[in-house]
């Protein structure tokens, strides 16, 4: 069961957020509760990928589908993960 923060807890959280604001502004915003929740796209993306894969298996010979999946796993997935990580921000400036 969640309870509201006490005055002391709010003060400590504000001091921590102020201290961290220089090193990692995004973390400080999350501490203050300002982070936006983005709608999850993962289930729809996964369903789309599986649908395309299923249709491809019916239409295209299996060897080509295997080659496309291998290309996606070896090239596309790492590139997407690197791009996502870069959008998250780098290490704090003092590191």
Mean pLDDT equals: 79
H/I helix tally: 4
What general form does the structure show? elongated
Overall helicity: 55-70%
Rg estimate, integer Å:
22 Å
The number of E-state strands comes to 0
- Biggest beta sheet summary: none
Strand content: under 5%
Question: Structural class of the helices, strands and pairings?
Answer: mainly alpha
Low-pLDDT segments, ≥5 res: none
How many structural domains? 2
How far do the termini sit from each other?
Answer: 38 Å
| Helix-strand pattern | HHHH
Quick synopsis:
This is DUF3040 domain-containing protein. The chain crosses the membrane at residues 42-60, 66-86. With 95 residues, the chain is mainly alpha-helical.
Topology:
Layout: H1 7-20, H2 25-31, H3 42-59, H4 62-87
Helix pairs in contact: 1-2
General description of the model:
By secondary structure, the protein is mainly α. The protein folds into two domains: 1-37; 39-90, no CATH class. It is 68% helix and 0% strand. The chain is built from four helices and no strands. It has helices at 7-20, 25-31, 42-59, 62-87. Helix 1 (7-20) packs antiparallel against helix 2. The longest helix has 26 residues, at 62-87. It is elongated. This is DUF3040 domain-containing protein. Keywords: Membrane, Transmembrane, Transmembrane helix.
């Amino acid at each position: 069961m969640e309870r509201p923060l006490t005055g002391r807890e709010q003060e400590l959280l504000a001091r921590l957020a102020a201290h961290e604001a220089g090193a990692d502004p995004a973390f400080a915003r999350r501490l203050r509760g300002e982070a936006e929740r983005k709608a999850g796209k993962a289930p729809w993306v996964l369903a789309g990928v599986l649908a395309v894969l299923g249709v491809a298996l019916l239409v295209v010979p299996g060897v080509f589908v295997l080659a496309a999946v291998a290309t996606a796993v070896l090239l596309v997935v790492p590139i997407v993960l690197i791009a996502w990580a870069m959008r998250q921000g780098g290490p704090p400036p003092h590191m």
